[in-house]
Amino acid sequence: MDADIPVAHQRLMDEVVIFGDRGSLPSRVRSLYPLYGLLGIAYVFIFILCVVSFSRVHAISEKAEALKSEVGADFDQLYLKAQNTSSRVDAIELDLSSLKSEAQKPSSRVKAIGSDVSSLKLQVSVLSSQFLALEKAVEIETPCGFLWKQFEDHCYFFYKGELNWMDAKVMCEAKNATLAVITSAREQNFLSSRTDNERYWIGLSDLNKEGEWEWIDGTDYNSSYKFWKTDEPNNFDRSEDCAHLWSMGEWNDVHCTYVCNAICERQL
């Protein structure tokens, strides 16, 4: 059958030549033109598909390479972070092991501190004994006692610290005294000369009834000496019920919860 194809082809070509000279082609030849046209279009379409496919494959290949590079960089970073984290974990474990080892050993520093504390306690005990001996010696020389000041037949203790009026009252009572009661200009001058314009509680208040001032030892207020600042007492904010010495030793009413120094007084 294969041998018949060249023969048929030759016959066809002969007919083309013969009819070409006559100016017309046989119908069998003319019927092959559409087939050849379709084949040409098919070849062109296949070529275009190849070109497009190649372009797409090339683009996909470039994207794959870029993704590979990016993933590779991220992987390298993750690997480095993992290595750093592992190193830090190893260091922490080493520190924990070292701390555990130190904790299990007797601490020479703790022992040294304990020895220092014992030494300080002994020194404090010695100093306390010396202080008591000094206080007794001073009491022999001064009738009022250590840190007390004498004026006429009364002794005064000037407490430096922050106390409200009630706490100051309790503090003085613990010393077998009361907050100072001022009954003369001489006593006022004595106290003012030792307060240095600082505030000191005295034993004067109107806690029992507003406007009716009373001395803590029962001394009559109305008939006794007074040394209020100008326009005082004014009961500012309707809650100033306790008195203290202020600038120049003048008296001022203030809230009883205010904190300042205090003067204690007792009879010699």
From TrEMBL:
<keyword id="KW-1015">Disulfide bond</keyword>
<dbReference type="GO" id="GO:0030246">
    <property type="term" value="F:carbohydrate binding"/>
</dbReference>
<dbReference type="InterPro" id="IPR050111">
    <property type="entry name" value="C-type_lectin/snaclec_domain"/>
</dbReference>
<protein>
    <submittedName>
        <fullName>Hepatic lectin-like isoform X2</fullName>
    </submittedName>
</protein>
<dbReference type="InterPro" id="IPR033989">
    <property type="entry name" value="CD209-like_CTLD"/>
</dbReference>
<dbReference type="InterPro" id="IPR016187">
    <property type="entry name" value="CTDL_fold"/>
</dbReference>
<keyword id="KW-1133">Transmembrane helix</keyword>
<dbReference type="InterPro" id="IPR018378">
    <property type="entry name" value="C-type_lectin_CS"/>
</dbReference>
<dbReference type="InterPro" id="IPR016186">
    <property type="entry name" value="C-type_lectin-like/link_sf"/>
</dbReference>
<dbReference type="InterPro" id="IPR001304">
    <property type="entry name" value="C-type_lectin-like"/>
</dbReference>
<feature type="domain" description="C-type lectin">
    <location>
        <begin position="151"/>
        <end position="265"/>
    </location>
</feature>
<feature type="transmembrane region" description="Helical">
    <location>
        <begin position="33"/>
        <end position="54"/>
    </location>
</feature>
<keyword id="KW-0472">Membrane</keyword>
<keyword id="KW-0430">Lectin</keyword>
<keyword id="KW-0812">Transmembrane</keyword>
<dbReference type="Pfam" id="PF00059">
    <property type="entry name" value="Lectin_C"/>
</dbReference>
